[in-house]
Description:
- By secondary structure, this protein is mainly alpha-helical.
- It has helices at residues 3-36, 41-48, 57-93, 100-132, 144-172.
- The chain contains 5 helices and no strands.
- It is elongated, with a radius of gyration of 21 Å.
Amino acid sequence: xxxxxxxxxxxxxxxxxxxxxxxxxxxxxxxxxxxxxxxxxxxxxxxxxxxxxxxxxxxxxxxxxxxxxxxxxxxxxxxxxxxxxxxxxxxxxxxxxxxxxxxxxxxxxxxxxxxxxxxxxxxxxxxxxxxxxxxxxxxxxxxxxxxxxxxxxxxxxxxxxxxxxxxxxxxxx
Length: 173
């Protein structure tokens, strides 16, 4: 492997480790926000209110709390995604990326991506619900993530087929 490829792998690995730390830190922050929503409910209502006096805290706070729980689930899913991607990067560094484990990693990443995109749609429902009550939360759907999910499912099949072909070829020799 050439020097620039080795450097790129090292940078990718470091970036993935950093992203996992940031992701887990965000999860901790969301957990703290969920806990803080109990004694500081009024401050949270004020923060999310665009038109004071128009939000009914009796339903807005439960929506916000459910949103935080769903976001913490997303943190867990992203952690699995990043961990599997790190495994793929490590196998490339080892010089043997076309292995059955990477096909499974890519399939897991595709499932995680699907779950992330589905949660993103749910977050859009939460944002619309809160905006209907006077909040100002911006959310826009995107097809890019869904395309990435399809790509990951295809790549997992490519890796599985490549692994099978390699095994068959090794058996012939």
